[in-house]
Amino acid sequence: MDRLKQQVLSQGKKRRKTNRPKLSVIAAYSGVFVLLVSFVNIGYQPPKPTASVSNLASQSPLVAPSVTPTPEASKSSVDELVATNIATNIAESSNMMVSPILMNMEVDLEIKKSMDQTSDASIVKPDIAQIGDSRTEIVNHTVKDGETLESIAAQYGVSVQTIQWSNSLTGTTVSAGKVLVIPPVDGFTYKVKASDTIETLATTFKTSVERIRSLNNLEKGGLTPGAEITIPGGDLPANQRPGYVAPAPAVQYNYGYARGFSDGNFTRVNPYDYLPAGVNIYSNTTAAGYNGQCTWYAYFRRLAIGRAIPNTSLGNAVSWAWSLGGRGYAVSNKPSVGSIIQNGGGAGHVGVVEQLNPDGSILISEMNYYPAGNYVVDLRTIPAHAVGSFNYIH
């Protein structure tokens, strides 16, 4: 029996000797463990109560007491949770005793992590970079009493021209109550057409593909026909700007209609804007001339402005300076508003002076002027150097 007891004790000593870790390993693990525990303990703050519960005895056992979060309940740190897990794993893998404090810390952080994932809180790390809060969308602005384009432009940090181009405004005044579209940056708004691409827009408006794509968030979807986008820093071509008027084509004048006159412009207008009410250019005739002709128009235009001429035979336009001068009308080479402009050559031509311009030029209205043809009324500017070449019947 004594021998058997000694044999069992001997085997037990061998097993204990075999399972015992070396002192060097224990020292190494201990050092790592102490370092990690120190790191965790330095940053660890014990959980603070986040709510006060009163009158628990009076509450129904089926109703959980309400808990009100306090400002002290901060968000979990990824570093805290990771460090605690590492320390616990090292201790368990090396057969070391896990500190109750360390175990509780890990449980606390795991619970807090679960709460964060089911609430508005989250495990966060400091932001490395933050996106700027610059405006990128187009906004609508309703003009208030006393506001001007200058004050509205200053309010939104854009130029007056940007607002003008985006709203087809030719002047600098704007009425209260008008709704203006305001781009986020200088440039202008643009309604996308089916044929447009970002590349063609960038080329047409002298900006970059990257700026159009980035400002309008077109990285994924691209352009949508009918959508209103911003052309940042764009240069609107002259013929697309508000108030653009195309230059009149060069016209070769003949038939003596503009003796001494070789340049100017020609704008077709609605004849009924210049004639008395009830006059029909296709049916009315007068003794002064047949409908659709320059003499017919000059007669009715003078009637419309309250300066009627006699409804008697005046002959062709080439004779009007003589025939009306013989009836007491003043004739000179100096124009006045409402005077009849007349020149000779062939059948001649007449019109009515509508405006005297500061630069010495004049604006006239007329019908059947070459190359417009019968029944067409137009406005034409006679440059200053040619004004003295005509007769004016006052």
Q: Your description of this structure?
A:
- The chain is of the alpha+beta class and 394 residues long.
- The chain folds into 3 domains: 2-46 and 76-117, no CATH class; 139-240, LysM domain (Membrane-bound Lytic Murein Transglycosylase D, Chain A), CATH 3.10.350; 265-393, endopeptidase domain like (from Nostoc punctiforme) (endopeptidase fold (from Nostoc punctiforme), Alpha-Beta Complex).
- Helix content is 31%, strand content 13%.
- The chain has helices spanning 2-19, 23-43, 78-93, 100-117, 149-156, 160-167, 198-204, 209-215, 294-304, 320-325, 384-387; strands spanning 139-142, 179-182, 187-191, 228-232, 265-269, 331-332, 340-343, 349-356, 362-367, 377-382, 391-393.
- The strands form 3 sheets. It has a 7-stranded antiparallel β-sheet with strand order 5-10-9-8-7-11-6. The chain has a two-stranded antiparallel ribbon with strand order 1-2.
- Helix 2 (23-43) runs antiparallel to helix 3, helix 3 (78-93) crosses helix 4 and helix 5 packs across helix 6.
- The protein starts with a helix and ends with a strand.
CATH architecture call of the largest domain: Alpha-Beta Complex
Helix content: 25-40%
Number of domains: 3
Oligomer: single chain
Q: Average pLDDT across residues?
A: 74
The helix/strand series, from N terminus to C terminus, equals HHHHEHHEEHHEEHHEEEEEHE
3D shape? elongated
- Count of strand segments: 11
Structural class: alpha+beta
Could you give me the name of the CATH homologous superfamily of the largest domain?
Answer: endopeptidase domain like (from Nostoc punctiforme)
CATH class of the largest domain: Alpha Beta
> Mind summarizing the main beta sheet?
7 strands, antiparallel
Q: Could you say what the CATH topology of the largest domain is called?
A: endopeptidase fold (from Nostoc punctiforme)
First-to-last CA distance? 156 Å
Low-confidence stretches: 48-76, 93-102, 117-133, 250-263
Radius of gyration: 47 Å
| Count of runs of 4 or more consecutive helical residues | 11
